[in-house]
Amino acid sequence: MDADTEELLTGESQALVVADDFVWDPDGTGIFYRARASAGGLQGPFAIRRVGLGGANEEVHTEPDYIYGLDVRDDGARVSYLAVDPGASMVARLAGVNTDGTGFSEVGADNPHSIYRLADVRFSPDLLDAVWPSGRRIIYASLPAGGTTVLFDGDCGDCTVEDLVYSPSGGQIAFSLVDGNASDVYTMNVGGPGWST
Q: pLDDT tens for residues 121-137?
């Protein structure tokens, strides 16, 4: 290894088969990652762990489903992820937990808007809310409240919502509404009505 390379953890020392989906702690003192202790493909259990640059390795949360898209809030106090059902290849739940292991919250498959693709889900900057497109609709989920609602329903025939993104404050989203070959860009207050082109 290069003299500038530091080994933080090894599979042998941590009894890990897989450690991946790395996200830096915003203060630069460690790395959050997805860990799996068995070689069972996409079968769990999985864990979110944090390894400090000094080598301390802590478990933040365990999860029976496959963890995808691990993200860390700017203050380093919360992580969010998508729990994926490997059999159905779709998101089973949106979830988040404080990095000290408390405050777990989720929006699960029992909600009426539970079918969404991995690549389409966007978490808010505080990692407490999420939005995703569903045809011409935008679905909004509040992890603390545990529910979903239709935030936007385009009255445009065969159009589809694409390319959702939160504003840095989390108070608005931008998205495109595609109808055939035409695409318009909109912004909308996340709290309710008030979207504009």
A: 889 999 988 888 888 88
